[in-house]
């Protein structure tokens, strides 16, 4: 099931500059694995262990996945995944 | 070099003073690729902390959606330090997400949150963990 994944500027080095790429899978975690098979290294920038990194935000259809099951969040055909690094500091 | 118009410069400093002693944060957006900071967008520090700032994930998504709709990008990302100098902290460098942005810091320490005291405003590029300070020029609005 293809879903669109919007990639932030800082991760576009993995996608040849593309702002959006397509991935497949039934969950967010599967989609990120699928992306990593073509854009090696991108998954590690988003995922730490079995969760989304603390300072990365991922949204499926505008919902923050921290509240919808994290990497287990279900995705289906036509969904949109947005990845945004946190704007944060000290 | 970063060029800010006077109203934007004053707006950033005013925001830092308003939120003191918590850190203030925001962006100045401009057309993609222009390097022109045109639209001041003060944001909410969801951490409400004197030593840390973070956008609420909902506000972050809304910000990027608005910028996409307008064909903009964050030209300046600013925040304040309320008890230390206007220089990027280790956390600032580790978390800097926009290699193309100017990172502006304002310090409101030592009474600089008061309107009659000068506030220190400095700008940096932060790329691959390296900090490079740059000159700030203020032009009439």
Spatial order of the strands in the main sheet of chain A?
Answer: 2-1-7-5-6
Distance between the termini of chain B: 18 Å
How many domains would you count in the coordinates of chain B?
1
Please tell me the overall pLDDT of chain B.
96
Largest sheet of chain A: 5 strands, mixed
This entry's quaternary arrangement is: heterodimer
Number of helices of chain A: 2
Q: What Rg of chain A do the Cα atoms give?
A: 12 Å
Number of domains of chain A: 1
Radius of gyration of CA atoms of chain B, rounded to a whole number: 14 Å
CATH overall fold name of chain B: Cytidine Deaminase, domain 2
Helix content of chain A: 10-25%
Quick one: how many beta strands of chain A? 8
Overview of the molecule:
The complex is a heterodimer of chains A (90) and B (141). Chain A contains 2 helices and 8 strands; from the N terminus they run ββααββββββ. Chain A is of the alpha+beta class and 90 residues long. Chain A has one domain (2-85): Beta-grasp domain (Ubiquitin-like (UB roll)). The longest helix of chain A has 11 residues, at 28-38. The termini of chain A are far apart. The mean pLDDT of chain A is 96. By secondary structure, chain B is of the alpha/beta class. Chain B has one domain (2-139): Cytidine Deaminase, domain 2, CATH 3.40.140.10. A 6-stranded mixed β-sheet of chain B has the order 3-2-5-6-7-8. A two-stranded parallel ribbon of chain B has the order 1-9. In chain B, 43% of the residues are buried. Classes of the chains: A alpha+beta (90), B alpha/beta (141). The interface between A and B is medium-sized, with 17 and 29 residues. β8 (88-89) of chain A pairs antiparallel with β4 of chain B, so a sheet runs across the interface.
């Amino acid at each position: 099931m293809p879903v669109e994944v919007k990639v932030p500027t800082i991760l576009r080095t993995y996608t040849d500059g593309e702002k959006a790429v397509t991935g497949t899978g039934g969950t967010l975690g599967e989609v990120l694995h699928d992306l990593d098979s073509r854009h090696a290294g991108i998954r590690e920038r988003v995922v730490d262990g079995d969760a989304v990194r603390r300072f990365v935000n991922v949204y499926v259809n505008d919902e923050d996945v921290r509240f919808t099951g994290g990497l287990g969040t279900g995705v289906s055909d036509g969904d949109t995944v947005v990845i945004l690094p946190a704007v944060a500091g000290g | 070099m970063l060029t800010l118009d006077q109203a934007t410069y004053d707006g950033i400093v005013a925001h830092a003073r308003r939120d003191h002693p918590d850190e203030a944060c925001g962006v100045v957006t401009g057309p993609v690729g222009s390097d022109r900071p045109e639209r001041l967008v003060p944001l909410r520090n969801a951490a409400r902390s004197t030593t840390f700032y973070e956008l609420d994930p909902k506000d972050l998504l809304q910000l990027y959606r608005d910028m996409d709709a307008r064909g903009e990008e964050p030209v300046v990302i600013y925040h304040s330090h309320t008890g230390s100098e206007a220089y990027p902290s280790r956390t600032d460098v580790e978390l800097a997400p926009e290699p193309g942005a100017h990172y502006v810091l304002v310090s409101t320490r030592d009474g600089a949150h008061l309107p009659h005291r000068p506030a220190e405003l400095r700008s940096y590029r932060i790329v691959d963990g390296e900090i490079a300070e740059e000159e700030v020029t203020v032009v009439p609005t």
